[in-house]
Amino acid sequence: MSWQPVVLWTDALIFSLAGLILFAFSRKHPHGQLHDAWQRLIQMPMAVASGLILLVFVVIGLLDSLHYRPQLPAQPGHAPQYSVEVISVLDTLLQPLREHQEKTYSAPLATRLYVKETMVQPGGRVLRDYPRLQFGGASLLHPQQDWQRDVTNRIMRGSVIGVLFAALLAAVGAGLLAMRRKCGLGALYRQLLGENNRLPWRTALTTLTILSVVIAVMVELAAAYHVFGTDKVGLDVLYNSVKSIRTGLLIGTLTTLIMLPFAVLLGISAGYFGGWIDDVIQYIYTTLNAIPSVLLIAAAVLLMQVYMEAHPALFDSAAARTDFRLLFLCMILGVTSWTGLCRLLRGETLKLRELDYVQAARAFGVSDWRLMWRHILPNLYHLVLISVVMDFSGLVLAEAVLSYLGVGVDPAMQSWGNMVNTARLEMAREPVVWWPLVAAFSLMFTLVLAANLFADSVRDAFDPHGRQR
Amino acid sequence: MIVPLLRIDGLHTRLGELRVVDGVSFSVMPHQTFALLGESGSGKSMTALSIMRLLPEVARIQAGRIDFNGRDLLKLPESAMRDVRGGEIGMIFQEPMTSLNPVLSIGEQVIETLTRHRRLHKRGAREEAATLLQAVGLPDAAKRLNVYPFQLSGGMKQRVMIAMSLAGNPSLLIADEPTTALDVTIQAQVLALLRRIQQQRGMGMLLITHDLGVVAEMADQVGVMYAGELVEIAPRAAFFDHPQHPYSLKLFAALPDRTQRDARLANIVGNVPALDSEFIGCRFAERCEFAFSRCREESPGWTTLADGHAARCHLLETAAVPKSVSVAQTIQLAVASDKVLLQVTDLAVHFPLHSGLWANRRNVIKAVDGVNLHIYQGETLALVGESGCGKTTVGKAIVQLQPATAGRILLDGVDLSALGKRQLHQQRAYVQMIFQDPFSSLNPHLRVIDLLEEGMIALGVEQNAGRRSQILVGLMDQVGLPSRALQRYPHEFSGGQRQRIAIARALAVQPKLIVCDEPTSALDVSVQAQIINLLKDLQAEFNLSLLFITHNLPVADYLAQRIAVMYLGRIVETGSSEEIITRPRHPYTQALLAAVPSLTRPAAANIVNGDIISAAHPPDGCHFRMRCPLAMPICTERYPDEMQLSGTHSVRCHAVAQAERVAGLN
Questions:
Q1: Is the ipTM of this complex over 0.90?
Q2: A28 at the B interface (CB within 8 A)?
Q3: Please, are residues B607 and B595 in contact by the beta-carbon 8 Å criterion?
Q4: What is d(CA A158, CA A328) in angstroms, rounded to the nearest whole number?
Q5: Chain A contact set for B436 (CB, 8 A)
Q6: CATH 3.40.50.300: does it fit domain B340-579?
Q7: Residue A224 carries which DSSP code?
Q8: A161 located within any domain
Q9: Chain A interface, mutation test: which of B440, B448, B456, B457, most A Cβ atoms within 10 Å?
Q10: Which tens digits make up the pLDDT trace of A291-327?
Q11: A33-42 and A45-63 helices cross at what angle (nearest 10)?
Q12: A462 with A272: CB under 8 angstroms?
C-alpha cells in the first residue's frame, strides 16, 4: 500500500457526527411536526442558497479530515517507510498549491516578488529589482504585455467551464427527476422554472451556477498564479485559507457536540425536577457565567500547553499534537458555552412541565426519565436546533479572536485566527501586505454569513410561533 | 326613518386564501345593540376588525362598503382612519390581561387616548380620566390613576379597557367577546356596566359573542353568522321566540337545560366547512337535517318575514318552516349505586409563596383548605366555582398530580395520599383525568396510537401489542372516531375530536373514576353538546364515576346528579342538582345562579358585588362575607360550620343557620 491511513481524534469525531446526521436523514421520517418543519425549511429560497454554500464548505472540511501518510520512495532491501508528515486528501488535491512555494511575499496574481532583490544579470551586471516569481505567471515570457490577456483568458475559460459544469449537473438532476416523475423533459422544464413550485428550483440553480463559476475561475487562475498571493515564507495564501476551513468548521461543530449533553441534560433536569436539583444546577451555571470566559479559556489552554511539553511522548506526530490542542480548545469552549442553552431549556421545560399532556402522562405513572425523553425533549428540538445553528457562526468567530490573542489553536495549524494574528504585523509594514487578511476575511465572512442566513431560515421554519407566516 | 349609524354592505374579506367574511351586510342603529352571534371561525371577529381596518397583514378587504356617519370607512385615508379608531368608534377586546400595556399606569393609558382624540392636556385630562374611571365603577378613581394593570383583577382591567374606549366619546362601541375571559359574577357586572353606559351615552354597540345568554341580555338586534356569512337577522324578541334558520334552531337545542336532563343534547354533525373554496349551495347544507337537493345546488337568498326578521334558507321560501330540530332518543341514565367509590376527607393543599433554598416556608396559599366530598359508583358530582377557588387543585390532588398537604383520599377503601411510589403506581389506573384545553393535553410529537398506548404500557394494562391495538380500535369507535385516526398526529384534528382522543386515552387504562377538568369550556356550544353526550353514554356503558369540574352551572345541572359549590378553597354548599339549582341556600350559590345570563328571564338585578378575593389573603371568618348581602357580625368571627338541610343538602352559612333556627322555633 502506498499510503497509511491516520485517524486523528477530531477526524473520528467529525465523521461520526456526519454519519449520525446522515443516519437521521436516511431514516423514514414519520409525518410529525419536525418533518413539517424540514419541509418548510427546504422550501425557503434563502435556506437553499445558504445551505448549498455551507455544503461546499462542509465538503472541503470533510476532504481535509481524511488524513494519511504517504509512502516514501522505496529503498531496496528496506521495509516500506512512511513519511512523518501527515497529509489529507485535500492536500493531495491541492498539491500544486502546496508545493509552489515562493521566496516571500507576493501580491495576488502577481508575476514578481513584492520585495526588491539584488540580482546578477547574465552579463554580470548587478541589478536591484523585483524578481520574477518561480511559479506565479512563470509561463509568461513578457509579463508586462501578456499578463492582462492571460488573466482575462483564464477568467473567461473558467466561467465557461463553470457554466458548463453547472449545466451538466442540472441536466443529470433533471434527467433523474424526469424519470421519477415520468414526464417529458419539456414538461419538467416548465414545471421547475414556473412560478408555482414547492421547492425553490430557480434559486438552487442560480446558486449552483455562481458557485461552480467561482470555483472554476479559481481553479483556472490558481493553475498559473497565486490567487491570493503568498505570505512571508512564500506559501500560497489561498491554500492556507482553504485549509483553515476545517479548523473553523471543527470548532463550530465539535464544540456544540461537546456542549449539547451538558446543556440538554442539565437544563431539562433543572426544569423538570425543580427543588434542590434546580437550585444546584442554577448555582453551577451562574458561577460559571460569572468567570470571564476568555480568562478561563486562556488559563486552561496554557495549562494544557505545559502538560503537553512535559509529556512529548504522548504524541507520535506534529499533526497529533496540533489536533489534540484543537480538540482541547473545543472542549474548553464547550464547557464555557453550555450555560446559555441550558438556561433556555430550563425555562422552556418549566413551561412544558405544567402542560396538560405532561400531567396526563404523570397520571399514567410514566417514569420521570421516559417522560423527559418522550414528552419534553421532542418539544425542545426546535430550540436546540436553532441555538446550535446560531452558535455555530459565533464559535467560528470566537476561534479567530482566541487565536489572535494567542490562546487559540496551535500556531502551526492553519486557521483564520492565526492568519489574522500574523496580519497584525503585516498591516503595520510599509508597503502594506493586505492580502492574507483579505483572504481570511472573505472566506470567514462567506461562511459566517451563510451560516447566519441558514440559521435565520431554520428559526423561521422551526419556531412554532412563526408558523402562521 | 332613522338613519343607521353603521351600515355594512356586501363586505368581503379574505385572509390569504380563506374567505373569512363573504358578503356580510347589516346595520347598527344609534342607541341600539347589534349582537353578532357565531361559533369560532365564523368570521365575526374579522368583521369587526374589517370595520376598524385593523386586519392582519395577510388579510385584505375585497369588496363592500362600510358607511359610518355618512362616510365610507374603506375609502378613508389611513390618517383619517386613526381619528375614527378610538375616537368615533371605540373597541373592547376579549382578553383584558393582554390589551393593557403592563408598564404604563392605567391613568397614563386613559390620558393618552384623551390627549389624542379630545386634545385635552395635563390637568383637564387627569380630571377627565378620573371621571371616566369613576363612571365605569372603579372605586376611588382619582387615587387609582397611578395604579399599574398588574395590581388590578381581570374584571377591573376590563373596566379600565371600557373607560379607554369611552375616552374618545365614541358614537359606536365594538365589543369583541368582552366577557368571555371573565367569571360569571364578573361577567354580570361588566354586562350591566355596558348596558348602563350605552343608555347614558346613547351609543350604538356592536357586540360580538358566542353566548346566547349574553345576546339575550344585551341585544336589540341579532345577527347569526355561519362560515363567513350572515344566515339570520332578527330583533331579539323574534329571534328568541321563533328562530328560523336550522342553524339557529340547533344552537338553541345544543344548550344544556334541566328540562331535557334525560334527553340527549342536539348534535350538529360534522364541522364548519373549509373556507378556502367557492361555495355552490347553502353553507350549512352538509350539517342540516332538513337539507334537500336544492340546498346543495343553489345558495339561498334572504327571505324576509315579519318585522325585520330575515333568514337565508330555502325552506322558508317554500314556507315549510321547520318547527324544531329532532332531538335524538333519550339515553339510558346511569343508575348510581349507593356504594361510595371516592371519599375525600379534610383535603388541604397549600402552596408555599416563595421557593428556593432560603425561602420562608410559612407563607402559604391555602388553595384547598379542608374539602370533604364523596362520589358514588356510577355517579357524576359537579364541582362548581369561579376561577381561583381551588377546584382544579382538588381534581389534581385526587389524581395524585398534586401532593396533598393534609387529608385522606380514599378510593375504593385505599388511601391514595398515604401510598408509597410503587403502591401508588398500581392504583393510578383507577383514577384518570381529562383536561380543559385539548390543544395542550396531547403531545404534538406523538401519533394518536402512541398517546393512547402510553398509559396502557406504563400501567401494564395489556402487555400484548396485538390485543392492545384491538382494544384501541374498539375504543376509537366508542368515542366516535375512525380507527385510521390512530396513525395520525394530533394537529390534524379539530378541538372536539382532540377532546375525544383525550377521553379515549383516559378510558384506555380502564379507570373507575375520571376527573373532568372543564372539558368543554374551550369548545363551541355545538361541540360541547357532542362531548357531553359522549360522556353520558360512556358513563352508562362503563359504570364510571365522574368528578366534573366546571364553572358553568347549566352544564353541571344537566350532567350531574349532585353539585358541590366551592369558594376560596372550601365547599360552601352541596346537594343534589335539583336542590342546588331550584333551592339554593348559600348566598354565593344564589349569586352564581343569578349571574348566569338567561334566555328567558330579564337581566339579573341582584348582582353580587366586588372581586373574587385572592386565596393568599382570605378574610377572617367566613370567606364570602365581603361580597355577601347577608353578612352579619358573627361572619367576621368564625367560619360557619356545616349544616345539614336534608339527606343530601348541606350548607356552610351563618345566615342560613340562623334562619333555620328561627324556623325551627316557630
A1: no
A2: no
A3: yes
A4: 41
A5: 356
A6: yes
A7: T
A8: no
A9: B440
A10: 888 888 889 888 988 988 888 888 877 888 888 888 9
A11: 90
A12: no
